Amino acid sequence: MSAELWNSAVRVLDTNWAGDHMVPSRRLYPHQWSWDAAFIAIGLAYVNPTRAWRDLRSLFEAQWPDGRVPHIVFDPATAEADYFPGPAFWDVPAYGNRPARGSTGIVQPPMHAIAAWEVYRHAAAHGAACAQEARTELEWLYPRLVAQQRYLTTGRNLGRAGLASIVHPWESGLDNSPAWDEAMANVPADLALLSRYRRRDLDVSDAAHRPTDLDYSRYVGLVVSYRAEGYSDAGLLDRHAFAVECPAFNSILASAELALAQIAGELGLSAEAAGHRDRAGQITAAIIRRLWNERTGTFHARDVHTGKLTPANCVSGLLPLMLPDLPADLVRAVMDEMRSERFGLPVPSYDRTAPDFDTMRYWRGPVWINVNWLIRRGLLMHGFRDEAEDLRTAMVRLVHRNGHFEYFHPTSGEGLGAPTFSWTAALSLDLLADRSVPAYAKAG
What we know:
Pfam families: MGH1-like_GH. The protein is mainly alpha-helical. It has one domain: Alpha/alpha barrel (Glycosyltransferase), CATH 1.50.10. It is 48% helix and 4% strand. It has a two-stranded antiparallel ribbon with strand order 1-2. A hairpin with a 6-residue loop joins strand 7 and strand 8. Helix 5 (112-123) crosses helix 12.
């Protein structure tokens, strides 16, 4: 099984390589996506570290002057008609050395420092030349990763409580998660927008697998709102209908600071390393203070406008397990939630017992390899090695039996969404190699 899955994953990554970056899939996602690039680099490093570094560098070459890393970098060779919302819709002005309409104006979870550190750790296995390349790339990326973190921890600290806010569900990476339902209910829904801006995802995918038209009209409206002010974050809370503190996004933000501490240490920047560790601790404390729900024993997203925690039990609420300084009683509670009938292994994107649990619709029930990979990271972080191995085995079997799909039916395991999906292939390589224990994990 291992050799067959390894070879099929390599073929997917070869198929989706676009010269200087990786696309998630050729038909549905023909550009470069931000957090996809991070997950992809982690697995790609095992077979082609030069491409792994090039993919990350290509993404950060499109970084905005304020530090934000756009959630999509558009490939100018791809026609506007081949993807919506495309460059003309986003209408991003020129910045730095980038042409106008070269990217989007929103972000995704900052997985990139974690990816850079993982790629660097694996470089030694490829010999001295790869190790030197890795050092050079790490030096180039480090200040850009710091700028990304600074943007998120300052410009996006909309609640003034130490957490980054997402201003569009797409920024979470968990696009139509029930975690956003209450906050999205306050966003005006104008279905007429879909007459003016026609979605094209349904041309190449099953409508039952994708967000609804109502969801999509709100997504488009939020971009129009943000675009109208040139994607400025100044005074954003007063004029923008959606602002949410997400436990998954902020857990990745804190984990990125820990990865930056490792990178800074490797580069001989001891004072900077200490600062990154301090910031990771501050973000962790804010996650606990702001997003922990004592009644449910798990973490929930907070609507910054209303101050309310979402009632939905989503996979995002389990992601703080990634944090090494999460108190032991909270770790036990999250583990109890993960083991309960609401979730189980592999972990679905939403509570299996909820009346609106949907086995096929994107982030409203299906199993995704990337978040399960992050949960496994958390299990290893806190010494749950048996559960981590059970989850690794379940993920490997799921992909081997059903293919490198974007996501999977939580009961049958059927592959859903885009086939030949890059991060599923890349993370399969990492799971097969079984070297994903972070250097800063707790002993267990």
